[in-house]
Specification:
With 279 residues, this protein is an all-alpha fold. Helix content is 71%, strand content 0%. It is built from 13 helices and no strands. The chain starts with a helix and ends with a helix.
Length: 279
């Protein structure tokens, strides 16, 4: 059981590798950033553009705090209302799969990310078939790392150091106000006094870590899509059709509308309908 948990959660080590540079200037707050890091938070760090006039460390901290708050509040509401809802919630967990599919599509929209996404998908699928649903995460991440490091010269030419774009001016103002309040609250609540930082602030990040911070996230997103679909069987009824239809719907809808909530909501509702009514 312990080994199984280790194999499932080993991916967080690779998450940390790609976030070392972004967390390096956050002072003591990086301790909370490490604590609060989940698959969803990690994905949002790399798919959400930092608005103009908002400091990156404030933006990332706000995402982490809000994401953890949503988890806690949502879990509480679900525990209280789950048994009294007038409809079956079977299949609602597909929302997580839809989220990662949406993030993967967003990554795919940027051409320089496509090789990494393909590497994550292919390595994840092959390792899933070879090692099974419970043991494929570590082999997948090893394969991804070996390929990315072996192809460093190629990727250095394809992916620039900084290709980030800002958000709109109105969104920037809203985010600036929200991030300022959350960040200041974090100063007062989490770290009221100065202490020695775990990672020396201002220390130069090794080039290899900078490189992984650019190419590893899209590959991890591709792997997470396979992770969400790891228990789907194409050999038994319904042969994975509900998942494949719902994933295809999410992809098509998101490419068409580019609306995260719409793509996730419609995809999840379609999946729930398919497994409860059709299949």
């Amino acid at each position: 059981m312990i080994f199984m948990e280790f194999m499932v959660n080993i991916r967080h080590i690779f998450y940390g590798l790609s976030l070392l540079e972004r967390f390096s200037e956050m002072g003591k707050k990086r301790l909370y950033m490490i604590f609060s890091l989940t698959d969803e938070t990690y994905s949002l760090f790399f798919v959400t553009k930092v608005p103009k006039d908002v400091k990156e460390e404030q933006f990332l901290f706000a995402i982490a705090v809000l994401d953890q708050s949503y988890w806690i509040i949502g879990s509480g509401i679900g525990a209280l209302l789950g048994n009294v809802l007038p409809f079956s919630a079977e299949g609602i967990d597909f929302a997580m799969t839809a989220l990662f599919v949406v993030i993967m599509v967003e990554q795919w929209m940027e051409k320089q990310n496509r090789p990494s996404v393909v590497i994550g998908l292919v390595c994840g699928l092959v390792c899933r078939l070879v090692f099974g649903a419970d043991n494929f995460i570590l082999p997948t991440m090893i394969c991804v790392m070996v390929i990315l490091l072996s192809c460093k010269k190629i990727f250095d030419k394809m992916i620039p150091e900084d290709g980030k774009e800002g958000a709109s001016r109105s969104a920037s103002k809203c985010w600036k106000i929200a991030c300022d309040h959350i960040y200041r609250g974090g100063n007062d609540i989490f770290y009221p006094a100065d202490s020695v930082s775990v990672f020396p602030k201002g220390k130069e990040i090794p080039p290899i870590i900078r490189y992984l911070g650019r190419v590893l996230p899209p590959a991890v997103i591709g792997m997470l899509v396979i992770y969400c679909l790891k228990n789907v069987s194409v050999l038994a009824v319904p042969f994975g059709l509900p998942e494949f239809i719902a994933v295809a719907a999410v992809i098509v809808l998101h490419v068409w509308k580019r609306n995260n909530l719409l793509s996730i909501g419609v995809g999840t509702a379609l999946y729930m309908f398919l497994i409860q009514v059709v299949f």
